[in-house]
Structure formats: structure tokens, C-alpha cells
Automatic annotation (TrEMBL):
Residues 84-183, 335-458 form the Transposase IS204/IS1001/IS1096/IS1165 DDE domain. It comes from the Bacteria. InterPro entries: Transpos_ISL3, Transposase_DDE. PANTHER family: TRANSPOSASE FOR INSERTION SEQUENCE ELEMENT IS1557 (PTHR33498). This is Transposase. The lineage of its organism: Bacteria, Bacillati, Actinomycetota, Actinomycetes, Kitasatosporales. It comes from Streptomyces lavendulae subsp. lavendulae. Residues 178-207 are annotated as: Disordered.
Length: 462
């Protein structure tokens, strides 16, 4: 780079620096290549992490300079957006939420709104009359905003969110009938009542050292005290006050005639290893008796515990108390919900028999299974037969459980968007993927950036 001297003695500038096109600019402290490199680092990592990286590259800068490079970038122009995706994300979880808008053709974010209000979304849609399809979840604010700001657009609810709403309703129904889950399934047990099963129950009342579990002794003592006080004519309120128990606990003990019903829930609480009992039993019977090896195997299957839990589970096996059949599954609300929501052909024979037995015990669960599978089949296979959705809503509102009736009432208000689920292939998968990317950006920024910087990183990040 040449340095030039002015020959005019009256000129206020005596020297001039020659500028090289596409390399330098007047008064610039960095070359264009270095600025572009720092900008890329800023978009990928943010302020402090980006600064630490460039310092390892022997580039002297600070976080404020890196952030100024992000704010100096022009925001991209979206152009026409005929297919729009919308969803919320948490700026501050539980307190502040914003809205992300996605071009469903390119799967790229086109704008970020500062809140999730219907009026804000409607105002944005009025400035984009080219929108024809809106993919969204079942949030009422986006439904109302779309109806107000883009009445010409067709709203499409997301199939996954609809199935998730159905699963939540089914889970609440099963939760109200959890007492039926505490009774062992005869379809999973071919042992006699006085044989190994009763021995297993006796072992369950002992800890890993063979001593009586304090919880079992406390439950038996409380059950006896409460029923003795009831026989004397004491009120439940007085019993709760004297024994320093809640009214709900006293009511639960009073409704239970036999203490074994209470112990069934107390000694069979869910643990991390419950889902892998059957696998461990089969592997032990195959000859694999190493707790460390078995722990590594089930960790690859999703087990999140440590090897000591596996050792405690296998201790009865080492002591010679090997069950002749596979251990009984621990029925939980979520396990039964999973049985109902999965396709029937994907269930094992044991799971299918267990679900059939539960339906025979309780007609409420039977009708819930019928309605849940009817709707799940319509959504998964895109069955849009004439009035199929309307018939399902009418049937559920007629004799379904309260949780399913609440879901049906919400679906009736959002009927057009849900009907579009059954007749189109649009989903909100691209929107959910961008929401996951936003969570990564927020973690990189340590939650300390304001909305302006977060919005720019969402729209400009590659």
C-alpha cells in the first residue's frame, strides 16, 4: 500500500493512503476478509464464546466489537411467503414468550415477533396478503390472529400436536383409574397365588440387606391406627389432627379395607430399571451374569442409572432366588398410555393381553381406548371419510370421559384446521426444528442477550 504526499502547501492534508478495492476502506481498522471472518464467528458463537475463539487465533478483539458486527448486518428480505409456519418459543420460560415465523418452502425463519398475542400476529399478516397456508399448533392466539389478519388463508393444525393433546387427555383418564393398575395382570403371570409370587411380595417388603423396610412397617401401623379410631367413632378430621396427617392421607387409608392394597403401591414404586427388568432376566438366563456388562448393554438401550442399581437388582439372582418366569411389568399411567397410543400391530403379545385385561376390568378404560384409537387412526393414516371427524366428536361428547369431551369441544371450535390435517400433508416439523435451534442459540448466549440481538441471530444464523 503506497503512501502519497500532497504537493499543495495550502492543503490541510499532507499525506494520503492508497485504497485497494475489495480489501480496504477508508478509516477501517480491519480488512474486509477479517471482518467477514469475525462476523461468521459472531453468528455461530455469539459474544463471549466468539471472543475466546478469535483470541486463540491471535486476533485481538472484545465481545462488544463482535456484537456490533452482528447488529451492523442488514436483515434478510423474505419476499412473498405463500406457505407460512408459526410457533412460540420461550424468551424467559414461564414469563416471556415470542413468536417465530417460518417460510415452509425454504424452512428458514423470516421474522420474529416480540410476543405471542393474536393482535401482533394479525398485524403482521395484514402486511403479507400473499399468505395462503398457515401451519400452526392448536394455540388459540394464533388461530384468532390468522382469522383476523388473513381470512383468505387456510389454517392447518399440526398432526403431532393433535396426537399429543389426545395422549394427555388419555393419560388424565387413566390417572383417575390408577387403582386398577395396582392389581397384577393375570395374563402376565402363570404362577400360583401361594408360590413364587407370594414369595416375591415378601421379598419386596425387605430392603437390600434383608431387613424390614421402614415404609412397610409405617404403612401397616398407620392403617391399624386409623381403622381402630374409626371403629371407636372418631371423625376423620380428628384422626388427621391427632396423627398429624393430611385429610387426603386419612381418607385414602380409611377407604382401603386391606393394608395389602396400600403396600402394593408402596413397595412397587417406579424405578429407573423397571423398563429393563425383562431384558436383564433374559440375559441372565442366557448366561450373562456380569452386572457391569449388563449395565453397559441397557445403557445403550437408554438406561440412565448406574451399575450399582443393576447389582442390587441382580442380588436375588446371585442368592439363588431366580424366578422361573420373566418378572411382572410394573404398570404405570404412562406405560398404559403408551400402549393405547401406539398402533395395535406394534404391541407385543404380552402388552396386547395386558391392555385387553385392563379393558375387561374397567369399561371406562375400554371406551377410552376405542375413542383414542379411532382418532389416532384418522390422523396417522389421513382418513378423511365423509363426516368421520364430526361423528367422532359427537360420540365423545355423548358418552366419553370429561377429559376427552374437553378435547372434543376444543376440536369442534378448531374444526377447519383439524379437518385440514386429514386432507393435506402439511406439518409443523420445520417450525419445531427452528425452535430447537433457538434453544441452542439461547444457551450459547447464556440467556443474557436482549430481544434485538436474539432476533438478529435467529434471522442471520446459517
Amino acid at each position: 500500500m503506497r503512501r502519497l504526499v500532497c504537493g499543495n502547501e495550502h492543503c490541510p492534508r499532507r499525506t494520503f493512503a492508497e485504497q485497494i478495492p475489495a480489501l480496504t476502506h477508508r478509516h477501517a481498522r480491519r480488512t474486509d476478509a477479517l471482518t467477514a471472518q469475525l462476523t461468521d464467528v459472531a453468528l455461530f458463537l455469539g459474544g463471549r464464546p466468539g471472543t475466546r475463539l478469535v483470541q486463540r487465533m491471535t486476533i485481538d478483539t472484545c465481545k462488544d466489537t463482535v456484537l456490533r458486527l452482528i447488529r451492523a448486518l442488514p436483515l434478510p428480505s423474505s419476499g412473498p411467503v405463500p406457505h407460512l409456519g408459526v410457533d412460540e418459543f420461550a424468551v424467559r420460560r414461564g414469563r416471556t414468550y415470542a413468536t417465530i415465523l417460518i417460510d415452509m418452502a425454504t424452512h428458514r425463519p423470516i421474522d420474529v415477533l416480540a410476543d405471542r398475542a393474536a393482535a401482533t400476529f394479525a398485524s403482521w399478516l395484514r402486511n403479507h396478503p400473499e399468505v395462503r397456508i398457515i401451519c400452526r399448533d392448536r394455540a388459540g392466539s394464533y388461530r384468532d390472529g390468522a382469522q383476523t389478519g388473513a381470512p383468505q388463508a387456510r389454517q392447518v393444525a399440526d398432526a403431532w400436536h393433535l396426537l399429543n393433546n389426545l395422549a394427555q387427555a388419555v393419560e388424565r383418564v387413566i390417572g383417575r383409574h390408577r387403582s386398577d393398575l395396582r392389581q397384577p395382570l393375570t395374563s402376565h403371570d402363570d404362577r400360583s397365588d401361594e408360590g413364587p409370587a407370594s414369595e416375591g411380595r415378601d421379598r419386596a417388603e425387605l430392603d437390600i440387606h434383608g431387613r424390614p423396610r421402614p415404609l412397610v412397617a409405617r404403612t401397616r401401623e398407620r392403617h391399624q391406627q386409623i381403622h381402630e379410631r374409626i371403629e371407636r367413632g372418631d371423625s376423620l378430621r380428628a384422626i388427621a389432627r391427632d396423627l398429624q396427617l393430611s385429610r387426603g392421607t386419612v381418607n385414602r387409608f380409611a377407604r382401603t379395607a386391606e393394608v395389602d392394597e396400600l403396600l402394593l403401591a408402596a413397595i412397587h414404586r417406579p424405578t429407573l430399571i423397571d423398563d429393563y427388568r425383562l431384558y436383564l432376566h433374559h440375559r441372565w438366563m442366557e448366561g450373562c451374569t456380569s452386572a457391569s456388562a449388563l449395565a453397559r448393554e441397557i445403557q445403550r438401550l437408554g438406561y440412565r442409572g448406574d451399575v450399582n442399581t443393576v447389582r442390587r437388582h441382580l442380588k436375588p439372582y446371585r442368592n439363588g432366588a431366580i424366578p422361573t418366569t420373566a418378572p411382572l411389568p410394573h404398570l404405570t399411567v404412562r406405560r398404559v398410555t403408551d400402549w393405547i397410543m401406539r398402533r395395535p400391530e406394534h404391541l407385543t403379545d404380552a402388552e396386547r393381553k395386558g391392555l385387553d385385561e385392563l379393558c375387561e376390568r374397567n369399561h371406562v378404560l375400554a371406551t377410552t381406548v376405542e375413542y383414542a384409537r379411532r382418532l389416532a387412526l384418522m390422523v396417522r393414516d389421513r382418513h378423511s371419510e365423509h363426516l368421520a371427524l364430526d361423528v367422532w366428536i359427537a360420540d365423545v361428547r355423548l358418552d366419553g370421559q370429561q377429559e376427552l369431551r374437553t378435547l372434543a369441544n376444543g376440536m369442534r371450535r378448531d374444526r377447519a384446521a383439524i379437518q385440514a390435517v386429514l386432507t393435506t400433508t402439511y406439518t409443523s416439523g420445520a417450525v419445531e426444528g427452528n425452535v430447537t435451534r433457538i434453544k441452542l442459540l439461547k444457551r450459547q448466549m447464556y440467556g443474557r442477550a436482549n430481544f434485538d440481538l436474539l432476533r438478529r441471530r435467529i434471522l442471520l444464523s446459517p
